[in-house]
Amino acid sequence: MKNLKFLSFVLFAILSVGFISCDDDDDEIGGKDTLVGTWQCTWSEGYEKDLLNSNNDDEWNGAEDFTATFKADGTAVIDGDGCKWKLEGNKLSIVDDDARDEWDVFTVLKLTDSELIIESYEKDDRYEYYDKSTFKKI
Fold first, then answer.
1. Total domains present in the chain
2. pTM for the whole thing?
3. Residue 43 sits in a domain of what CATH number?
4. Among 3, 34, 47, 67, which one is least packed by beta carbons within 10 Å?
């Protein structure tokens, strides 16, 4: 009888962990194949702060209209400019064709077959920048 209670407890624990780990967020970040295609930016919000001179500060929150095309070979065209890209987990890295090893890294908040939301944040002792952009696949 003790063994039956123990097995029931173990089975319950395993099933509970299984249900807890099946979170909907797992479906929010697709893979490289999901990113391939043409995306239109529909909204961007953020700020840029010059920590030494606040007269240079800027904020935005509104509609945007540019496209980004990600190709399966790791190349892309973003707003007319050629670049390379790689997606590792929730990190999207992009480098201009003209730049060498100066990758811009974005955090992918959501990537589905129809929606992409990325975020970028940088800060040092003189400068702070944040941007969150939403795209729809076209």
1. 1
2. 0.74
3. 2.40.128.280
4. 3
